[in-house]
Amino acid sequence: MGSFINAIPGAIGQGLIWGIMAIGVYITFRVLDFADLTVDGTLATGGATLVTAMMNGVNVYVALVIAFAAGCLAGLVTGLLNTAFGIPPILAGILTQLALYSINLRILGKANQPVSSYKYHLICTMSELNKALLVATAFVLVIIAILYWFFGTEVGHAIRATGTNMNMARANGININSSKILALVISNGLVALAGGLLAQYQGYSDINMGRGAIVIGLAAVIIGEVLFGKIFKNFALKLLSVAIGGIIYYVVMQFVISLGLNTDDLKLLTAAVVAVFLGIPYIKSRYAETHVKVKEVK
What we know:
- By secondary structure, the chain is an all-alpha fold.
- The protein is 77% helix and 2% strand.
- Strands 1-2 form a two-stranded antiparallel ribbon.
- Helix 1 (2-32) packs across helix 9 (213-228), helix 2 packs parallel to helix 4 (89-108) and helix 2 (39-55) crosses helix 8.
């Protein structure tokens, strides 16, 4: 138990970073209603871009902007594949994700590239955990504030309308293709930004660091919705619940590991957690319907 308590700050730091990634997933999964699998590749793109940029003398802040831009470009490709070529959302995301594997390998030059805090100026690293927690928290809050403002604008409302009812949005003169592309660009930009922060936090960028990212992102989204859905009604608070979901996920994972679970089984546990939390709302609704029918019979 002592080792678990000591590991909590590190788990919170990692959860905050993945919370940013989960906010990106939330934009496509909940706001746009678009099943985007690009994120598994985009997270690694953000990490690879940041590390390579810093190795070439780029300032860490500029490197994060470049990582964000690289993610936006990946989202643009997925959006164009879907809107311009009529490829279904899932396949469009898979195609971009597949292409990103080779692109990320070219960016890094090899499968794994370290970025040491002793050699480079990093703003979010485990070697300075207190600073990393402050930086990650600041990023989460600023991102939520910007997104809250953006989705309150006319363009933001158009994206939300597209996700709510595409046919109705089209009938009201909204360019649904532009809305889809913009949402995918923002979403994947945030995921890549999280990848840049994660590469700093763990001290390296790896070609496979994004594998299974969509499942972790969904886990954070679902956990946040199940635990805070009835409390947090405001859009900004919903985004905050997603970030908190990321923290809860990593704290739970750390607790399970402290109990002696084989780390090779973490992906299996993640899938199980997502399945359970996805199923809870459905089971509750079925139970409520059955309860009502029983009352009517009586």
